[in-house]
Amino acid sequence: MSGERGVRISAPGNLLLCGEYAVLEPGGLGIAVAVEPRATAEIAPRPAATETELQVTCLTAPGRAPAVYRPGADSTETTRLPAACFGYLERAGLVSRRPNRLPNKLGNLEITLDTRSFFAPSGEKRGFGSSAAATVVCSAALLSAEGYSEARVRGLLLEHAVAIHREFQGGRGSGYDVLISTLGGAALFRGGPAPEAEPIAAPWLQNMFLAFAGESVATSGAVHRYERWKAAHPDAARSFLERSNALVAELSRASARRTALALIERLAELGVELGRQIGVPAEPAHGLRDRVTARLGRTVCKALGAGNELVLCAPSGLAAANGAVEPRLAERDHDTIQPLQPAVEGVSWSTASEHSRSFQDPAG
To answer: How far is CA 243 from CA 58, 127, 239, 270, in A?
Structure first.
């Protein structure tokens, strides 16, 4: 199917539900889930008379003009990601500036990389791992343009996409986001130089909500604070990792919602404890818990990621929400409560004449 007109590749966003900071350590465990929305990359032919053989057009935040990357040209802030994807894959001998294995001989190609759904109307990122999802679809599109089969592209993504994203991020990154955007569903993640992700059932993910509130915290700054704390308090850091791993492992095996919510609550408390130690807030912003309770009833709340701008809300009372709650938008798209939308499909291909096909084997 690679190289056909109108090829569309998509990959979901991602969230780390638990295991913050722990996943940075070798053997550190976390549970990640693929979520809507999706990043997309569309491959289409360009006129043969154009001056370059391949270009990537990037569509990002609302109101921002499209940016174009051409192999060999200098990249801008907006085109750094396709430049990193292409540069890595070219050095690995996997792609070329003039794709020459296209079965339909389309000539010059344009890849349109679209991550606009990862931004709020205000232009701020929504916290769903846009750069990881974009890395997956951009790399998949470049490989597909070379004529690799979907099966081969899937294998190459699992082999190289984490390294590509780490290169884009200056050598950092646990890799959970890239793997879960590739695989879809939910997974138990194990950190390290070569991270692993084991799919899990996680039936307790049903009827969960996300609350957007609080001030954005730069992940790099939070990680730096964690590393300084770990260096100064090695015993406390070791204890934190052991406690976190034990709770995450137990949650990965949980099937009953009541059991899962009790574990999520304990993980939330552990996150708050660590946040106070390193100086990064991990509690829901002031008043948010009350507003969540007013909307959803008795609820377990847990901050996600670095800081408290995004909070997982798990109704725990008899009147647990059924997913039909209408979200309420507030100023700058903050302080909204919306259903969590897990994405079963990972990276997938589609054309105008067929349905999307998932990365995962439907039988698996």
So the answer is: 42, 26, 6, 8
Phi, psi angles (nearest 5°) of residue 263: -70, -40
Residue 56 confidence (pLDDT) above 90: yes
Cβ atoms of 186 and 255 within 8 Å: the answer is no
Q: Is 213 helix (H, G, I), strand (E, B) or coil?
A: coil
Give the pLDDT score at 325. 45
The values of phi and psi at residue 278, to 5°, are -100, -5
* Structure-token pair, residue 85: 């994807």
| Distance, CA of 58 to CA of 347 (rounded, Å) | 19
Structure-token pair, residue 327 = 């979200």
pLDDT band at 243 (very low <50, low <70, confident <90, very high): very high
What is the secondary structure of 219-261 as a DSSP string?
HHHHHHHHHHHHHH-HHHHHHHHHHHHHHHHHHHH--SHHHHH
Residues 314, 300 contacting (CB under 8 angstroms): yes
Which residues lie below 8 Å from residue 131, measured CB to CB, with a gap of 6+? 81, 165, 168, 169, 177
What are the distances in angstroms from CA 287 to CA 97, 262, 291, 293, 335?
A: 53, 22, 6, 10, 10
Fold of 7-200+344-357: Ribosomal Protein S5; domain 2 (3.30.230)
Contact 337, 208 (CB under 8 A): no
CATH classification number, 209-339, choose in 3.30.70.890, 2.60.40.10, 1.10.540.10, 3.30.450.200: 3.30.70.890
Q: Which tokens sit at 231?
A: 């260096």
pLDDT of the residue at 126: 82
Give buried/exposed letters for 270-289 (b at 16+ CB in 10 A, else e): bbbebbebbebbbbbbeebb
- 238 HSE (CA, 13 A, CB side): 4
